[in-house]
Amino acid sequence: MTRHFLKDTDLSPAEQAQVLDLAVELKAAPYSRTPLAGPQTAAVIFDKTSTRTRVSFAAGIAALGGQPLIINPGEAQLGHKESIADTAQVMSRMVSAIVWRTYAQAGLEEMAQNSSVPVINSLSDDYHPCQILADLLTIREHRGDVAGQTMTYYGDGANNMANSYVLGGVNAGMHVRIAAPADYQPAAEILAEANELAVTTGGSVTVTDDPVAAAQGADVLVTDTWVSMGQDATGRDDEGSPFVKYQVSQELMNLGNDPIFLHCLPAYRGKEVTAEVIDGPASVVFDEAENRLHAQKALMTFLLEKR
């Protein structure tokens, strides 16, 4: 059966660890696996602008022996003149994988339901699971085994990044803390799924509106922009923003367990994080960005070899 990766928990805890192990292998030996040799073609569809996703998937597909086919907004009939279901059936007869950076999670689900090749969520309004794989790889490199470590996320606790940190982190056996204003905390169904998963993995999720308490003893501090792509910035990005007190500062970093700092980028210094932190010695954001390449190569290899 064709495997897809639409949200973090589409990989079991054991499979997630397997993908991370493979990412380590591929980082050390970049051309050791070529599941797309031929070259086979992988379609990479963009409904949203991108830097890291575009470069990492294009480079990764090529390194796996394949040919990336980049489809930009307005360059295909998808969702306009042709249904997602029809597009999926046509494309999966021509390519070996479909990577889609889009808006609605439901669109990805419809694509996967009608595709005979792996469909990968490279970002949706609900989840960003490829980023979490890269983050877990980065934590592993800098802090050792991820299981049992505490990761605190600051900012909009109801956005796609927070959802994936909760699910992906607990899937890895981490203790995930979400520090967010009361009106911007994870949905009940996300927390319920994470709590059910935690019984198996030993991880946990805690939600709080207290940024100081959330930093105490944390191994990783992470944040994201206050305005996600496509959101209205009104009231989110000014001096009256509810997220101002959740800015990651050196004072918060000092409360942790010698933590590292993560950010999926692009970052806005002086907003969600101070320049002192993101440009400081605890910041590993560029290792994290590079690891998008290695983690996604491992994910694609895993999915393609499951066909």
TrEMBL record:
The gene is argF. Gene3D superfamilies: Aspartate/ornithine carbamoyltransferase (3.40.50.1370). One of its GO terms (biological process) is citrulline biosynthetic process. It comes from the Bacteria. Residues 3-141 form the Aspartate/ornithine carbamoyltransferase carbamoyl-P binding domain. GO terms for molecular function: amino acid binding; ornithine carbamoyltransferase activity. Carbamoyl phosphate binds at residues 50-53, 77, 101, 128-131, 264-265, 292. It is an enzyme of class 2 (transferase). Its EC number is 2.1.3.3. GO terms for cellular component: cytoplasm. L-ornithine binds at residues 160, 224, 228-229. This is Ornithine carbamoyltransferase. Its main location: cytoplasm. Keywords: Cytoplasm, Transferase. It holds the Pfam family OTCace_N. It is found in: Cytoplasm. HAMAP family: OTCase. Residues 148-302 form the Aspartate/ornithine carbamoyltransferase Asp/Orn-binding domain. Pathway: Amino-acid biosynthesis; L-arginine biosynthesis; L-arginine from L-ornithine and carbamoyl phosphate: step 1/3. Belongs to the aspartate/ornithine carbamoyltransferase superfamily. OTCase family.
